[in-house]
Amino acid sequence: DTFIDVEDFTADGEIVRIPLDRVKGPIGCAQALYKRSQKLRRAAEAVAPLLEAAEAELVYLQSVEVALEQAGDQDGVMGLRVLEDVRDELIQGKFMKAPLSQRQQGQLTKGGKGKISGKGKKGKKPQKKKQRQQKGGPDKATELTGIRRFGAPSGKVVLVGRNNKGNDHLTHKLASTHDLWFHVRGSPGSHALLRLDAGQDVEDEDIQFVADLAAYYSKLRNTTNAPVDYVSAKEVRRARGGHLGMVTFQPGTEKTTYGRPQDSVAATIERDV
Asked: Where in this protein does the record put region Disordered (predicted)?
C-alpha cells in the first residue's frame, strides 16, 4: 500500500497516515481530500443549528418533566389544574394532539357542521362578548394555578412558578424591575421571584430562602446543594425562538449562590403533611 505521513495542524501536530491512490497520484489525491473536507465542513455547518435546536427542545421537555413530577405536590383540584395547564402547553407546542372533544369544538368554531350563522348586529354581539371573556380568562387562571406564594423571613413576598405557563406569567407579567429573579443553574426548574420595592435592601437570609425554594422546585430537588443564579428581573428576556418558559439573561449580570433543597420551607411543609 502507498501512503504518506503528515502533521495534523488542527490536532497539535499529530501524525496522520493518509492512504494514496496510485492512479490519481499525489496531486489528484490532495484534490480529492480537499473536496471531501469541504463537503464535511458544509455538513457540519448545516447540522450545528439543528443540534442547537434539538438541545433547546430537550431542555424544554425536561422542564415539562419536572412540572409533571412535581404536580403531585398539589392535591385535588389544584393538582388537576396544573396538569391541565401542562397538557394545554404541550398541545400549543404541537407535542401532542388535543383531546377529541377539543378538536370537535375547534371544527365547529371554524365553521363546521353545527355552526351558528346569522346576519346583522344581533349575530355579532354574542361573539364579541365571548371573545372578551376568553381574553381575560387565561391570565387569571394562570395566576391562580401556575404560581406558588411564600413569605420570606423578612416578610417579603416570594413567588414560584408551578409549570412553564406559570413561569412565563411570573417572569414577564408579574415581575417588576426592582424584583430579584432566581433559577437553578444548568438544570430545569421553576422561576422564583423575590418581590422588592425601589431601593429596598435585600437580606442574605431572604436570598438563601428563595434559593432553597428554587433548588427544591427543580430537577436538583434530591441533592444536598444546588447552584442557583439570581439576577435583577429586568435582565431576564424570553429566549429567542424558545418554547414557553425559556429565558435568557446577559452573562455577567447574575450572581450565584447555593440552595439547600431539603432545608427549604417547601420541604418542611411536605414533611409535616
From this structure: 101-147
Q: How far apart are CA 146 and CA 244, in angstroms?
A: 13
Residue whose C-alpha is closest to residue 265's, from 162, 151, 184: 151
pLDDT tens per residue, range 152-186: 999 999 999 988 888 999 999 999 999 999 999 99
Worst-scoring range by mean pLDDT, 4-8, 90-94, 118-122, 131-135? 131-135
Strands, E, within 20-89: which ranges? none
Other residues' Cβ atoms within 10 Å of the Cβ of residue 84 = 12
Residue in 159, 161, 140 with CA at minimum distance from that of residue 244: 161
Residue 195, Cβ neighbours under 10 Å: how many? 18
Cell of 168: 412565563
Which cell numbers in the block locate residue 245? 418558559
Residue 157 has phi, psi (to 5 degrees) of -80, 135
Contact 219, 187 (CB under 8 A): yes
Domain ranges in the chain? 3-53, 145-272
